[in-house]
Amino acid sequence: MNDRIHNFSAGPSALPTAVMQEMQEDLLSYRGSGMSVMEMSHRGDLFMGIIDEARTRIKRLYGLSDAYEVLFVHGGASLQFAMVPMNFIGEGQTAEYIETGTWSTKAIAEARIQNKGVRVAASSGDQDFTCIPEVKGLSAEAPFVHITTNNTVRGTQWHDLPDTGGVPLIADMSSDILSRPLDTRPFGMIYGGAQKNMGPSGTAVVILRKDMVEKIPHNLPTMLSYRTYVEKESMFNTPATFPIYAISLVTKWLEETVGGLAAMEAVNTRKAEALYALMDEDDFYCGTAAKESRSLMNATFRLRNRELEPLFIEKSLECGLAGLKGHKSVGGIRASIYNAVSEASVEALCTFMDDFRRTNR
Amino acid sequence: MNDRIHNFSAGPSALPTAVMQEMQEDLLSYRGSGMSVMEMSHRGDLFMGIIDEARTRIKRLYGLSDAYEVLFVHGGASLQFAMVPMNFIGEGQTAEYIETGTWSTKAIAEARIQNKGVRVAASSGDQDFTCIPEVKGLSAEAPFVHITTNNTVRGTQWHDLPDTGGVPLIADMSSDILSRPLDTRPFGMIYGGAQKNMGPSGTAVVILRKDMVEKIPHNLPTMLSYRTYVEKESMFNTPATFPIYAISLVTKWLEETVGGLAAMEAVNTRKAEALYALMDEDDFYCGTAAKESRSLMNATFRLRNRELEPLFIEKSLECGLAGLKGHKSVGGIRASIYNAVSEASVEALCTFMDDFRRTNR
């Protein structure tokens, strides 16, 4: 597809072109049914097959045991920020949150709005969230420890999970879900908005360990209780059918074209290393994250001469590279290189960065 | 499109074929941008244009004054069932709900789960919800009166709004939103899941009168407060971008191809009258809703000989007519004839029903 742009958007973001082509082909008549996936009953056999495929492929990709449920929940990650404390911080309990920037801060705020017991057990706020903090002294009594595995704004990522001594980890993985293999056993819950590594926005994927369900109070509004999604298999009401369809295709692509999460991680590592290596050649570009905390998903950097940044963005667009502007809260440049951003796109970016440096040194 | 089926699904349901074709054409590169609407930042100019178009067209179709905001909220109508009492029933207040079947009953249940003051001011439950009940004695002190304008399961619809004496009406219009012109002035809020008359599932449209915002408590979880959606123009987090794009195209189709809501109502009336007229010719088919409460959106009926119903469904599918099975809670037949179901589709259904009657009399 010659007319496809190199898309480095932080989210919603690039989807695999092959997936987009399959969606396009079937858009008016899914598998000869005479209707689009958008137009069919969520309780019919066709869509039940689709949601089941999405669920099964996610389970298989992560090697999840039967102890886990895969749910499709409304509202993106931001609604989960509110639902997690509502469902899992009981009377008198204090949950542990690790603060690593914008999204973790929002998660903490939503627990506090509900007057729930919350302790910020570690924070890299004093280092401007440019690294993942050291974690020690976690309480063994906490109902969970909450982390944000990848931080899109500052370009940091957890590379080793904190030892919680058996307390369930709950992780917002919106921006690195399905990007690498994972030992899922420490996790009570994993959640993520679909719109970075999985599909279009409109649904969150929630991976929930079944023993967590027992802790959910019985008096929550139906749509705000994870128990509802478990008991009704994410079909208490109409789920976001088209985004779930896209997830089924993206996870199929991950399994059948990429070859699973280890293979995906290898590709993601090559992409990130190419970019960081170029950045580290001299000080024309300056990475903003501490090296040991650098994200494989969002490479954030400044130009030594910040006045050149608007020109960098302008020229990159002219070269067919989109979405490189940094988050408005921090400025600078951000290249989001999620699963579906190809090595060819990263190569094009590296070539552009190299040229831009030579021209503007 | 010869291979498109006649789709009578109750929701998700048929979308205009012309809209589907435009989506298909632009799926990999929206207006030459080199990316799909699914892949672009919700804060970029392109998507901002799309959401603004959807908002503006809804406003224009209903002739809404500046006193109203159009919002795109997560979670479908079912989450609004919980958010409405959370936002609008204050301490010591009692809201009035009119009970007209399945969906209104769920709305009432969600208010009760929160221990909110709720009174069922009228119900057609003693008539098996086959009609819209007479409403009198509404309290002038209530924060709102809640109705469900169209009832998909029993095939009933409000044709005259109740006189609330100035108390704001809040209406779940999931299944007849944008199907006819409306005097919106009595409404404090109108809401509806997208997946019947507007687009694919994954978002709800909420039309909120601005004076309602002042009543919203300030301590709600951010994503559960309508104030957030007003203040952040439905962009506190990533909205369901692709469903909103579809809504922008469907409302464009309503304005530019159909010619507005009065024209749409004329078409919808012709479709419903054709079906009901055929049904009323003799007692082979028996409409289940009281005549004065019949829905223009969902025509529900039984066969006099109920044993023939499975054969009716089987044969209809063979004739390219899909989605005619009644809701599982009541059985029978249901033809959902929302905006995008064409007169040609209804004609095909009438021909089939006539033939089936002749063959199986």
Indicate the topology:
Two copies of one chain form a homodimer.
Chain A: E1 6-7, H1 17-25, H2 45-62, E2 68-73, H3 76-88, E3 94-99, H4 102-113, E4 117-123, E5 145-148, E6 150-151, E7 156-157, E8 169-172, E9 187-193, E10 204-209, H5 226-231, H6 241-258, H7 261-280, E11 285-287, E12 298-303, H8 309-318, E13 321-322, E14 333-336, H9 343-360
Parallel strand pairs in A: 1-13, 3-4, 3-5, 5-8, 8-9
Antiparallel strand pairs in A: 2-10, 6-7, 9-10, 11-12, 12-14
Helix pairs in contact in A: 1-6, 2-6, 3-4, 7-9
Catalytic activity (chains A, B): 4-(phosphooxy)-L-threonine + 2-oxoglutarate = (R)-3-hydroxy-2-oxo-4-phosphooxybutanoate + L-glutamate; O-phospho-L-serine + 2-oxoglutarate = 3-phosphooxypyruvate + L-glutamate
Subcellular location (chains A, B): Cytoplasm
Pathway (chains A, B): Amino-acid biosynthesis; L-serine biosynthesis; L-serine from 3-phospho-D-glycerate: step 2/3; Cofactor biosynthesis; pyridoxine 5'-phosphate biosynthesis; pyridoxine 5'-phosphate from D-erythrose 4-phosphate: step 3/5
Mean pLDDT of chain A: 97
Relative strand content of chain A:
15-25%
The domain tally of chain A reads 2
State the fourth-level CATH superfamily of the largest domain in chain A. Type I PLP-dependent aspartate aminotransferase-like (Major domain)
The helix content of chain A, as a percent range, equals: 25-40%
Could you spell the SSE succession of chain A in H and E letters? EHHEHEHEEEEEEEHHHEEHEEH
- Name the poorly predicted regions of chain A: none
Structural class of chain A: alpha/beta
User: Main sheet of chain A: which strands, in order across?
Assistant: 2-10-9-8-5-3-4
Number of helices of chain A: 9
Secondary-structure arrangement, i.e. CATH architecture of the largest domain in chain A: 3-Layer(aba) Sandwich
Give the overall form of chain A: globular
- Largest interface between protein chains, with number of residues from each side: A-B, 69 and 69 residues
Please give the alpha-carbon distance between the first and last residues of chain A.
34 Å
**What assembly state would you assign to the polypeptide chains in this entry?**
homodimer
The CATH class designation of the largest domain in chain A is Alpha Beta
Q: From the alpha carbons, calculate the radius of gyration of chain A and give it in angstroms.
A: 21 Å
